[in-house]
């Protein structure tokens, strides 16, 4: 059975996401202490893949994932998962809400349920733990009365009961996770794919605008952009880009070669099905057929068959 | 004496940054429990301004700042501060490094000194607290042996001593903070200024590239870009942009009016001196004089004085 790494400890949102990312095959999940350690295990071949957060407001470590993917040997994402930011309140059996005087969790999780706590447990004081799962562990050990946890946590702490679920101050917030492995055969295009790259460009006026124009000229829809400073390379900037489409698509391939010409470095970080399955809308001028017809036309001209 | 809000508790990096942001006037610093509460105190007039993190990998809450600035009544940044990500190790007087068995801090701070701890305190186990300052408080209360803290923390816990300082796994990492107040007279241009805006554009192919081209055509150098989803407005995207220059500069004013024409919403988030004081380089075609000459030329033509 293949082993899959994830950012531990067991019982966190990342474990829950990694289960979702590996739903279609039997896998043994192995927790690692940091994202870089989990990805190092993928690079060394110790595990087949790793589940890692990329946009996760609950327990952080998102810059760690992007940084770790673009340091050392290349890795690519092959699957995407979205999890709603909704928590359970776990406690010991028989405890009444009015008896709860301490609530433990990761500081970011506590910040995201502040209003709920004020309304439902106004007398309780909050206690920080190193992860949402560590909060549940501390309650199981008798240190605190209740924990704000990921829904998966209760499976690891069967001595606890769910006192409330679906806890969220903000509706519809989601966190995003990727299954990351060593380069190899790519996932098949599904018509509803996302491609992620990291591009390094010189810190000159207009280079970013030109790079994005290369994408838009080919009808490529950007879904995320984030600049991150490059400490070790002065005068250069790094951009993480997500856009609709698969590297196997003609318009995406054409756009990527343009980026490669313009950028000092382009990391290909994967083409994978979008978790929300929303199909890419492709302009007629950027369709597979349009690219095929125009390539054939040029070939004919170059061969002297057409003028 | 004016009161200035900051994200508490006292003794954190945000307190340290807020001191730096208010170095040029006498101010009484008041801690608030969250960034939204600190900014609400500015909006209501309870305090003059607030120190808030915008790029801070230590204790998080950066999305909270950007979200809170673009929700409710407008606020603008008037001053910027950069702090190195370097920690102190605090403990009780007389304790030897070999006697330290527990080290407390915010989980993100612990993650950023992991290597240092492994090398210098290999036998110690880490304990999470809700902030770096709460770690120092817990050591002062006798709960743990040592704390990883902001350099300012020791001033609040005079019973502790500094066992090590300048602790950092990554050299040169910095966090960025802004002093935020209600709109009013802007800081004077210094020639080394930054302007921050948040622009909402429709989620169509090319709108971002066009927006950035408006900036680059006027020689405006982008220093940061980040997309953030807009939950409540489907089909629109929000971008936080930082660029060199002051809204009083002709090229920046011209670029902002172009953004205003293109975007459904543009929040002006301030023009303020850059903390690193690096002067903006301005192309001859985007200089104040070039804008003045060309505006005068058009005026003359429109008045029939020139053809």
Automatic annotation (TrEMBL), chains A, B:
GO MF term set: prephenate dehydratase activity
Annotated site residues (Essential for prephenate dehydratase activity) in this chain: 175
Pathway per the UniProt entry: Amino-acid biosynthesis; L-phenylalanine biosynthesis; phenylpyruvate from prephenate: step 1/1
Reaction(s) catalysed by this chain's protein: prephenate + H(+) = 3-phenylpyruvate + CO2 + H2O
Record-linked InterPro entries: ACT-like_dom_sf (IPR045865), ACT_dom (IPR002912), Chor_mutase/pphenate_deHydtase (IPR008242), Preph_deHydtase (IPR001086), Preph_deHydtase_CS (IPR018528)
Top enzyme category: lyase
Record keyword Membrane present: no
Gene Ontology CC: cytoplasm
Domain ACT: 196-273
CDD domains: ACT_CM-PDT (cd04905), PBP2_Aa-PDT_like (cd13632)
E.C. number: 4.2.1.51
BP term (GO), one: L-phenylalanine biosynthetic process
Family matches, as PANTHER family: PREPHENATE DEHYDRATASE P PROTEIN (PTHR21022), PREPHENATE DEHYDRATASE-RELATED (PTHR21022:SF19)
The name this protein goes by in its record: Prephenate dehydratase
Source organism (scientific name): Saccharopolyspora spinosa
Annotated gene: pheA
